[in-house]
Amino acid sequence: MPTSHFPLSPEPDLQQSLIGHSLTSPSIPVPSLILDRSKARRNCDAMLDVCRKLNVGFRAHVKSHKTLQLAKMQVGGAAEEKTGGWPANFIVSTVLEAEQLIGYVRECHSIGRPASILYGVPPAPSVLPRLFSLANNVAPCTINILLDNLSSFNHVLTALSSLPDTVSPRPTIGIFIKIDTGYHRAGIHPSSAAFEPLIDQILGAEVGKKGVVLQGLYSHYGHSYAGSSVEEAADGLIAELEGLLSAGSVVQSRIMALYPDYKRLILTVGATPTATVAQTLLFAESADNTTIPALSTSSISLSLLAEITSVYPPDTPGRFNTKPERLISAGSMALGREPCKAYPGWGIALPALGNESNQIYDFGAEEGKREGWIVGKVSQEHGVLVYEGGGGYGGLEVGERVLIWPNHACVAGAGFGWYVVVDEDVEGGGKVVDVWARWRGW
Questions:
Q1: Domain 37-291's class?
Q2: Cβ distance 128 to 162 under 8 Å?
Q3: For residues 132 and 106, is the Cβ–Cβ distance under 8 A?
Q4: What single string gives the DSSP state of each residue in 15-68?
Q5: Where are the domains positioned within the chain?
Q6: Could you read off the pLDDT of 58-94 as tens digits, one per residue?
Q7: Looking at the domain that runs over 300-407, which CATH code has it been given?
């Protein structure tokens, strides 16, 4: 299915309509997804800085933001485009994301910059033709896939052999074996009786020049999101590495029978907690820690703009509310419905716009000492802000606007066609400086 079936929001029209307006302007629709460009850039730069210091590669996941602008920023932006030094390696969760990125990957290749795309889930057989069409006339292993079973691999070989004779040169697809390091969503465990046969079949197809190359091993430690501390995230990172090293030793033993020389394997790890913990630990250990900013809420670049539509003081007759409440123009379709273990809500109101006079809810404080507005209830298109804590509060009257941190950025973004972009380094972030269209579809 071509990308034309999933048209992007018209950036030029949106830019003309929105740039220069304040977030309090009626010209900015509510709800809107607000992205702080300078914060996002600093986060991307910090991650790359950590990877350079650790001398490891980095593969940028685009599933959360789904934009070309942020994808470029993740791999170094304009500076790396000029030098071609840092590879532009990406991971995607949908074929459409790969289709939107392939043009940029080709641009990178044209200036001698390494670039590739990894489809980050074991692929359904029906999507293989779309994926493999992206591999035409690009370097070998520009397009990579994950596999964890022999049946899927056989579908890959069938799809490659079924390509028309007019496809020349024939594409070469990179294979990463998905290793289950405890999340149990997908992947194969090294102890499985099916593991060695899978390795042997992939290596045999590589030696037989059937259009595949074993690139390495991949782990996603998704259950690290259940952790509550840096220490738990660090334990998760170590467990990921140990799991891949264990699997790697098995793979190398199989390789020895087929390759007279050493074959380099790429070990890929990292969920958000286990990837960012490297940044936190390096910050803690660095003698010059001013160069690596510690992670904090001040680093959060995404928020949701909503408007107050009704006010309910405590003990509103018939409502039975013991706390102040505000109805807002954003519900589960904008915020998502995923809870957060750190606090009893679906979002936290920032001390900005109509909420400027109030403190931010500190989910890290002790129970009983947390105070501020949170999204305490959600319906489909509306939510309810609830004021937690016994202190005084002000503002947030009908018509005033509020910025909210959603619990899960990936889910919150799904309902929006574009980002309203601000920049705290430009007039304090109070005015729109750009609009970036989000990719839509699968």
A1: alpha beta
A2: no
A3: no
A4: HHHHTT-BTTSTTS-SSEEEEEHHHHHHHHHHHHHHHHHHT----EE-TTT--H
A5: 37-291, 300-407
A6: 999 999 999 999 999 999 987 666 665 789 999 999 9
A7: 2.40.30
